[in-house]
Amino acid sequence: MKSPQIKSPNYTIRPFEKEDALLWQKWDTDPEIQAHMPELRNEAQDISTQYEYIEECENDEDGYYWSIETRDRTTIGIVSLFEIDPHHKTVDLGIVIGDKEYWGKGVATEVVNTIKEYAFNTLGIARISAEVEEDNLPMKKVFEKTGFEQDGVFRNARAKNGKRINVLHFGICNTKQRL
Ligand SMILES: CC(C)(COP(=O)(O)OP(=O)(O)OC[C@H]1O[C@@H](n2cnc3c(N)ncnc32)[C@H](O)[C@@H]1OP(=O)(O)O)[C@@H](O)C(=O)NCCC(=O)NCCS
Q1: Ligand 1: which residue has its CA nearest to atom 2?
Q2: For residue 79, what are the CA distances in angstroms to 3, 66, 107, 154, 166?
Q3: CB within 6 Å of ligand 1 — which residues?
Q4: Does the reported pTM lie above 0.90?
Q5: What is the pLDDT of residues 96-134, one digit of tens each?
Q6: Would the CA dihedral through 157, 159, 162, 167 be positive or negative?
Q7: Domains (ranges, CATH) in the chain?
Q8: I need a surface site. Which of 77, 110, 155, 169 has the fewest CB within 10 A?
């Protein structure tokens, strides 16, 4: 699906560009960034694999994938709406702020709010879901600040650093979307 460019108050949320792949190679191998992702990567993916991924995202009929850019065109993260179910009008949301200089400055909160409004008001989505590891405190905070509520716990859902950890399920419903 072609992802449209969207502006939040301070950031531009734009479709992927080839140059983004170089940043992902850095972000994919940063242990701090990867700490709460489903898979812990140890090495960067081959650049041609990354280019293929960009193409797959562009052709994915069930998702939207964006990079997050500052107004001076520094690329600082990615955000996606994926596994859109057109019948049930549901979707999953994922976000990574890869440039750690920007952590704790409200970027994810602003971007999640903007993408949430896009999903509800433009796509007519009825429910957005997201998963977050129990000890990912910043992400839990972002969901709380953007109106998501925790509606479940997948106990022992992942193996991390030699122990099993819980994954929390968050969701937010569009009260204007009745069906
Ligand atoms: C999680 C992530 C997206 C948050 O992005 P961000 O732009 O830093 O988030 P925000 O600044 O909007 O909000 C973070 C909040 O968490 C708080 N926070 C940060 N560290 C915290 C901690 N250890 N304990 C509790 N709260 C914490 C911040 O103070 C802030 O809350 P505040 O605005 O009330 O002060 C970013 O850290 C990231 O990309 N991490 C790596 C990838 C990842 O985990 N993605 C999510 C996978 S589900």
Answers
A1: 139
A2: 11, 5, 11, 23, 23
A3: 33, 36, 95-97, 103-109, 132, 136-139, 141-142
A4: yes
A5: 999 999 999 999 999 999 999 999 999 999 999 999 999
A6: negative
A7: 6-173 (3.40.630.30)
A8: 155
